[in-house]
Amino acid sequence: MRGLLTILALLTLFVSVIVLATAKPATHETPQVRYVQTLPVEHEDDAHDSAAHDSAAPQVAEAICILQPTQGNQARGVVRFHQTTDGVAVEVTIKNLAAGGIHAMHIHEFGDLSSPDGTSAGSHYNPEGHPHGLPDSGPMRHAGDFGNVTADQDGMVRLNSTFSNISISGERNPILGRAVVLHAQPDDGSQPVGNAGSRIAIGVIGVAPEQVRPPTDAPAHDMSGDEMEGEEDQGPPPAPRD
Ligand SMILES: [Cu+2]
């Protein structure tokens, strides 16, 4: 009897192995996971106060974007973002521009740098559906409308500004994971996107560690050359180009 059971068990195992070995895979193309953007959760329960919400979903306070030149261009830089109670403080350092050049800078909707010309970053980041505008036109503009930056005589941009209509990872127009795009031309404020020309540098806004700036005696918003430390020295900026 015991021998019979053993044979039956072995037979079952053998058949199982054969079935598994010959089973056709469900498919060779595993479906990709698709993620969708979710809207901020509205809490109807008053007992669920903002403090509890904040502790459940802490916001990222520091972010960074490394701007890399698109194909055929040279501009590169660093954009740092600091969440404040007034909005997002932005520190921009860019080099390798033509002296005196004025360039549009926007947040675009996708952190997708796959295309050589930067077009994979999509259009302006505009969750609130406003028309395009320059920063001095007020909050009824694209969340990504940073306006223009101007290069100095050395072809560098050093700019500090605060934007009250965005957050790094909060509920209002969170910018984390989007792209910063620097354009060849100035943003003239016109519809639909400011007539700013091609995209000459681009980067994704990512999470940065706290206290990323080296301690210094200088004022908090002093833009020293330290921001660009670690990058190779490429000598004087290139001649102006079209
Ligand atoms: Cu743009």
Largest sheet: 8 strands, antiparallel
Q: Which molecules are bound in this entry?
A: copper (II) ion
CATH class of the domain at 62-211: Mainly Beta
Number of helices: 2
Q: What is the ordering of alpha helices and beta strands?
A: HHEEEEEEEE
Shape: elongated
Structural class: alpha+beta
CATH architecture descriptor of the domain at 62-211 = Sandwich
- The CATH superfamily of the domain at 62-211 is Superoxide dismutase, copper/zinc binding domain
Strand order, main sheet: write it out.
5-4-7-8-1-2-3-6
SSE layout:
Layout: H1 2-22, H2 50-56, E1 62-69, E2 76-84, E3 87-95, E4 102-108, E5 145-150, E6 157-163, E7 179-183, E8 199-207
Antiparallel strand pairs: 1-2, 1-8, 2-3, 3-6, 4-5, 4-7, 7-8
Bound molecules: copper (II) ion (CU).
Residues 104, 106, 108, 124, 181, 183, 196 line the site of copper (II) ion.
